[in-house]
Amino acid sequence: MNKIIDATDINPWINRSLSEELVYWRGYNRGILLHGPRQAGKTLLLKAFGQENFKKTVYLDLADEESRIRFESLSKAKFAEHGYPSNNGDFIIDTLNEMRKDMVDSPDTLLIVDEIQESPYVYGKIRYFVRCLKCKVAFTGSYLGDFIFKSDVRESAGDLVRLDLETVSYLEFLKNRSFYEEYKTVDVFDSQAFRSQRGSELKTALRRGFYDYCQMGGYPEVISSYLHGAPMEKCINIRNLIVKDFYDECNKKIEKLPELKDWDEILGRIAYAVVNDKEWTKVLESENQPFPFKGISGRSAEEIDRIVKWFTVTKMIDHSFITTTPFVRSLTSPYVKLFFTDLGFLQHVISKTPGLVLESDAKGFMAENFAFLALRNLKHLFRDQEVWKYDSKGLNGIYEEADFIKFVSPVNKRLLIEVKNKRGSTPRSDKVLARGEADYIVKFMDADAKLGETSAVIPFFAIDRLQVIVEMLEAGKIGAKTRRMEFFNSKYEEPEAGKQVRNPK
Question: For residues 344 and 221, what is the distance between their CA atoms, to the nearest angstrom?
Fold first, then answer.
């Protein structure tokens, strides 16, 4: 229901990276559309922002049928009754005042209009909210719903700042841990960094946190419970309830989709396809019921295709492009690799389809999916905003593959990224490096960090330290004469060629 937010409603349990952009937005003469999937924490973030930056926060929930119908009918009646000209939005404030007697239209008020995709009528009146009200207006919208009416309603692009919010990333999760400030001071590439008792405890906590995050995913309600000491079993139960609610909403939003009992099976087969590197274009373009969806009773190829596209629209699935050369990066390439946008969602799907995805394959794909999401969150470090997989034809005619390739500006260095669920060598990427098709290799794995002249190992729990590698590449400090004392304020000893760089004792 619509209400004035009281301080007791706010639970500032976690800091989100997008908070800083909201502060900047307050100085703009535009509204904001905070877009993101269900349960990403959009409403909680805006409520906390309102409490911290405004004298009053007013909340209108369009997902609440009673509130939505009342607002629409009242505003339509007032528009007709007073015959307001098209550039006058008094009918909006009159409607708000009637629904909330204590509504104050002033620059010190934040109006939150939640789940705007539920009302095409309100969506079409965005310009009145933004241009005619004195208060700041923030709209939220789930990806659920875009698919339904976006062709019928034009977005008032000039009146809105649009920001995307996804579930809590691992980097956000890490920054909200009690030991994060201590972790920031650690040079993970120093072989002595975790040798002390306290260092060992910190490393154990970091590794445990990484594995826990992969199990529960980034739904804010789940992360909040975890940070407040809830056992993992409870966190997973909350995650599963959120997924069930998502399935229920899917069934309401789109016609002729399967019953709830089929969702896990269908998504499990999607997981099977992406884990086993099936060419997704074949899955989507097949005229017959596409593999790996054979065996889903009563579902046509057209319906399966619609389901898969639905999950891309709702941003539950994302993709990286596969490039055949580091010099040609075509957005029209038909080759893509799919990933799930929340690891908890992926874990739920795999857990509900025993026997379809092998445990060893699932662990490997989970690690690769984790790296993909981390690279998206670290996109500010690179020249290209997309995440690319790399596939190059070797001199012997055999295709050599690496997990990801990123381009570092302004030095135009090519950073090859390998993800290893288990320890082991990376002969394919080593060959790519030897041919001069990449400038440096980073290996994400469950191992101690190492920094060398042509390659580095970064443990999964310290994946944010990829920034150190990028900075060193930009500064030309990685190579035959590696220097990194500028980054850690340490003394330096020139290593022998080919030797791992070590901190002085």
Answer: 12
Structure confidence by residue, pLDDT tens digits, 428-477: 777 777 777 788 899 999 999 999 888 899 999 999 999 999 999 888 88
Average pLDDT score, the chain: 77
Q: Say yes or no: 457 and 342 in one domain.
A: yes
Between 3 and 279, the higher pLDDT residue:
279
> What digits encode the pLDDT tens for the residues 255-283?
655 554 577 777 777 777 666 655 444 44
Q: Are 184 and 202 in contact (CB under 8 A)?
A: no
Residue where a domain terminates, one of 146, 164, 182: 164
Does the model's pTM come out above 0.70?
yes
Q: Are 26 and 53 spatial neighbours (Cβ–Cβ below 8 Å)? A: yes
In terms of C-beta distances under 8 Å and separation of at least 24 residues, what long-range contacts does 61-64 make, across chains too?
61/1, 61/2, 61/114, 61/115, 62/113, 62/114, 62/115, 62/116, 62/118, 62/119, 62/122, 63/114, 63/115, 63/118, 64/1, 64/2
Residue 241 lies in a domain: no
CA gap 129, 383 in Å, rounded: 37
Residue 55 pairs in a beta bridge with none
pLDDT tens by residue, 108-126: 999 999 998 888 888 888 8
Task: With beta carbons less than 8 A apart as the criterion, state whether 38 and 44 touch.
Answer: no
Cα 164 to Cα 269: distance, rounded to the nearest angstrom: 28
Rounded Cα–Cα distance for residues 4 and 100 (Å): 8
The answer to the question of residue 200 being in a domain is no
The range of the structural domain enclosing residue 269 comes to 256-505
Q: Which of 178-187, 300-309, 445-454 has the lowest mean pLDDT?
A: 300-309
Angle among Cα 454, 339, 315 to the nearest 5 degrees reads 130
pLDDT-based confidence at residue 7 (cuts at 50, 70, 90): very low
List, edge to edge, every strand of the sheet that includes 160-164.
3-4, 56-61, 109-114, 136-142, 31-36, 160-164
| Domain edge (last residue) among 109, 135, 164 | 164
| C-beta of residue 46 within 8 angstroms of C-beta of residue 9 | no
CATH classification at residue 150: 3.40.50.300
> What count of other Cβ atoms lies within 10 Å of the Cβ of residue 240?
16
Is residue 144 domain-resident? yes
Domain count, the chain: 2
